Amino acid sequence: MPMEPTPFRHHNPAGPVYRRGWVDEAVAAIEADQCRTADTHLIRLIVPALSGIDIYLKDESTHPTGSLKHRLARSLFLYALCNGHIREGTPVVEASSGSTAVSEAYFAQMIGVPFYAVMPRTTSAEKIAAIEHYGGNCHLIDDGRALYAEAAALATRLNGHYMDQFTFAERATDWRGNNNIAESIFTQLQGEPRPLPDWIAMGAGTGGTSATIGRYLRYRQYPTRLCVADVEHSAFFDCFRTQDRSHVCERPSLIEGVGRPRCEPSFVPGVVDRMMKIPDVATIAAMNVLSRRLRRSVGGSTGTNFLALCRIASEMRSAGQAGSLVTLICDSGERYRQTYYDPAWLKARGLDPAPFEIALSSFLDTAQPLALAVEDVVNPQSPRSVA
């Protein structure tokens, strides 16, 4: 049974109050926060064995709330405020596996509205602590399949607003520019030897970031292609492969932040050029390998991204192609000390990343082909699809 949320100190029992001046102040506060925050770094990963193939990592872990979801949360709050969904005193509710809720709790605290995160009970303790640090309430449920319904029901009970990141992620962000993540990447690449990357590789949680990047590539008429890496126990890959949005997956994804049990409304298959399905154990191996090379830990979803990028790099190397590749560091590994970085946790789930780490390290050290079989499909309708 779900836990009943604890009362929030800012909650107004009489219901939200409409005051245009408060909305103006809230938008100004969020915009001021963005002005204070420098853009995230674009790191070049030096891999001597891959001479001619430049690898870049957009480090989203440096946002104030520590993840890629900071951008999404900011956009969702501005969207809800400017559409009249959030008023003074409006309780905000979100369905989340963790990182989005951390970021939304930050913005809710900033503008003084109560925040409730409906999350699976399996969400890492570190993420729960971060949400509570920003004044949010964690509403934990046992059945992840009930996440959406419980969030909507809780918002109704509180006379609040259900943010619904999985529906509104793709429309809340201005994909034409306005310093979105795609525009930021291309601006930062301007002084590089190969400023137009061959591929951008990334995972999908809501699908909003891949929609933003894919649309921006088409809007700017760039030749760059978009590869989305999915994980086990997720519906996105089968949705893309069959062009059927009805696919569902009964088991939840093991990799937090990516993969969903249904094809979320914000996932836009038509802007994706290629998808891979990465085994969980290979994701964790790639997370470990990249963490050692960066000399700091990254999260699991970053491992998914990095492995997809390395597979593309291996193909380019085998074909004698030069170019540049970009992927994302979604968050820090500090949030996963009790899960992906815990040997006991891995052993309990029958996961041994060591053989995959050896294979990936060998590729990065010698440029020998990366021997890793993954499910892979190209969008036949994409004008930039590959053979």
Description:
It is a single chain. The protein is an alpha/beta fold and 387 residues long. It folds into 2 domains: 37-63 and 176-374, Rossmann fold (3-Layer(aba) Sandwich), CATH 3.40.50; 68-170, Rossmann fold (3-Layer(aba) Sandwich). Helices cover 39% and strands 14% of the residues. It has 13 helices and 11 strands. The strands form 2 sheets. A 7-stranded mixed beta sheet has the order 1-2-10-7-8-9-11, with helices on both faces. It has a 4-stranded parallel beta sheet with strand order 5-4-3-6, sandwiched between helices. α6 runs parallel beside α8 and α10 (280-294) packs across α13. The chain is globular and about 65 Å long.
Compact description:
It comes from Bradyrhizobium diazoefficiens (strain JCM 10833 / BCRC 13528 / IAM 13628 / NBRC 14792 / USDA 110). By secondary structure, the chain is of the alpha/beta class.
Main pleated-sheet profile: 7 strands, mixed
Number of DSSP strand runs: 11
DSSP strand content = 5-15%
| Arithmetic mean of pLDDT | 91
CATH arch. level architecture of the largest domain:
3-Layer(aba) Sandwich
Q: What distance lies between the first and last C-alpha atoms, to the nearest angstrom?
A: 50 Å
Q: Give the radius of gyration.
A: 20 Å
Q: Regions with pLDDT < 50 over 5+ consecutive residues?
A: 1-11
- CATH fold call of the largest domain: Rossmann fold
* Number of H/I helices: 13
How many domains make up the 3D coordinates?
Answer: 2
User: Regarding CATH, which class of the largest domain?
Assistant: Alpha Beta
